[in-house]
Specification:
PH-domain like; alpha+beta; WH_DNA-bd_sf; phosphoprotein; seven-stranded antiparallel β-sheet; acetylation; Pleckstrin
């Protein structure tokens, strides 16, 4: 019987020889993880057997890279993968751990029932804590704070987070709250906003989160933006990045000049209506943006300039109000449907 395919999609993988990070198409089956250079490739670049393997998440071996998890095979070979956002990583980690457990017990893969109450792992507990912190009525309040001639919108101080954790009985004291906050920072739920908090996050200290009134942070999927700069780039930051994040993930994008297809991380925001795209193997600076106000998005069955072996299936097209055409490919038909629905909503309601 052929192994059951459990999950597939784009992840960023660290090379075993050159140590470079590259976006790959990953397929998880009952007994292993295969990764391909392109989704359309017939032969994988490699296969990671899961029998006797272990998984660590979060993996903090790489200082400036968040959302990384590590698979160590029975032969002690390490493989590092990076997801594009927290929820995506948790889905991969949950299924890989389940596959490893089933192999150990000699059972077929089956997801656990959600009807019973089960003890959640720490990473998921942090996810629940994050959702409580974001509650509009009872969570951490997002403020407009001024510091060093700059105005930070939708943010809060490190001391505020620590005090909230204690007041809600999530921590017994400040040191315990500080450890929880550091976990939220390391997991990518919280992001540093100013120079002080960024220096703390990049330090090698056990608690990289700072319990200080001058250390500023923001929710990873909030409408954070900073004012007070003078360059064109910072004006762009102020205007385009103030919206709430509606959806994010990796898609295949066709280039406008060379017509080649590359994996890009996309973040969709609602007000103003923008979709920014990034190189998932590099930093947080966007490669470009698509203004979606008045745009049209539709599913398509082919792309005029694409060769059959380069691209296949789950395609959609965005036509902006300036009549610029963007061709994208989702990992699955369901994911394409979700992206189209989200973009359509934003294009009608966003500025």
């Amino acid at each position: 019987m052929e192994p059951q395919e459990i999950r597939e999609g784009y992840l960023v993988k660290k090379g075993t020889v050159l140590n470079s990070w590259k976006a790959v198409w990953v397929v998880l089956s009952e007994d292993g993880v295969e990764f391909y250079k392109k989704k359309t490739d017939r032969s994988p670049k490699g296969m990671i057997p899961l029998k006797g393997a272990t998984l660590i998440s979060p993996c903090q071996d790489f200082g400036k890279r968040t959302l990384v998890f590590k698979i160590t095979t029975e032969k002690k070979q390490d493989h590092f993968f990076q997801a594009s956002h927290v929820e995506e990583r948790e889905l991969w980690v949950k299924d890989i751990k389940r596959a490893i457990t089933c192999l150990q017990g000699g059972k077929r893969f089956a997801r656990k029932s959600t009807r019973r109450s089960i003890r959640l792992p720490d990473a998921v507990n942090l996810n629940q804590l994050y959702m409580l912190m974001k509650d509009q009525d009872d969570g951490v309040k997002e403020l407009k704070l001024e510091q060093e001639n700059r105005v930070f919108n939708h943010c809060f101080t490190g001391a505020t987070v620590v005090e909230w954790l204690i007041s809600k009985e999530k921590a017994r004291n400040r040191p315990e709250a500080l450890m929880l906050a550091t976990g939220l920072l390391n997991e990518g739920f919280l992001q540093p906003a100013g120079d002080l908090s960024k220096d703390g996050a990049e330090s090698a200290e056990q608690t990289s989160f700072l319990d200080e009134t001058k250390a500023l942070y923001y929710f990873a999927d909030s409408g954070f933006f900073c004012e007070g700069y003078s360059s064109d780039e910072d004006v762009l930051l102020k205007e385009e990045f103030r919206g709430n994040i509606i959806k994010q993930g990796c898609l295949l994008k066709q280039g406008h000049r060379r017509k080649n297809w590359k994996v890009r991380k996309f973040i969709l925001r609602d007000d103003p209506a923008y979709m920014h795209y990034y190189d998932p193997t590099k930093g947080d600076d966007p490669l470009g943006s698509v203004h979606l106000r008045g745009a049209v998005v539709t599913a398509v069955e082919f792309v005029p300039d694409a060769k059959k072996y380069d691209i296949d299936g789950n395609l959609f097209e965005i036509i902006t109000s300036d009549e610029i055409h963007y061709f994208l490919q989702a990992a699955t038909a369901e994911e394409r449907k979700e992206w189209i629905k989200a973009i359509q909503a934003v294009s009608k309601s966003g500025k």
